[in-house]
Amino acid sequence: MRPEDVEHGTQRGYAWHRRRGEHACGPCMEAHGRDLANRRARRAEASPLGRSLTQARQRAGLSEAELAEQLGWSSPYSVGWVENGSRRVSLQALEEWAAALGCRIELIPGEVLEESAA
């Protein structure tokens, strides 16, 4: 991509600077900051399941990357994606997750939460 084709003020622009080993320009840094703030907000709004998974991992004293390694997942970011609701996992994966943390999966009667269409 040529410098004149860069979309400054976007996350793509920020990534372009980083790939070139440069410090990002002001507008690209602002876009990156907004992206980070949005990610943090999504994490704060994680589902009850995501919050429970995060708490169980933290009680076990494991980082996201350490748990991903124990589970044999290729990306160290996968655990965070599940915890913040960006990715869904199968019941089998949840069972493996619980086993790695020394926990069990329980269904607790209560209010049913509606999920947005995925």
Automatic annotation (TrEMBL):
SUPFAM superfamilies: lambda repressor-like DNA-binding domains (SSF47413). InterPro entries: Cro/C1-type_HTH, Lambda_DNA-bd_dom_sf. GO terms for molecular function: DNA binding. This is Helix-turn-helix domain-containing protein. It comes from Nonomuraea phyllanthi.
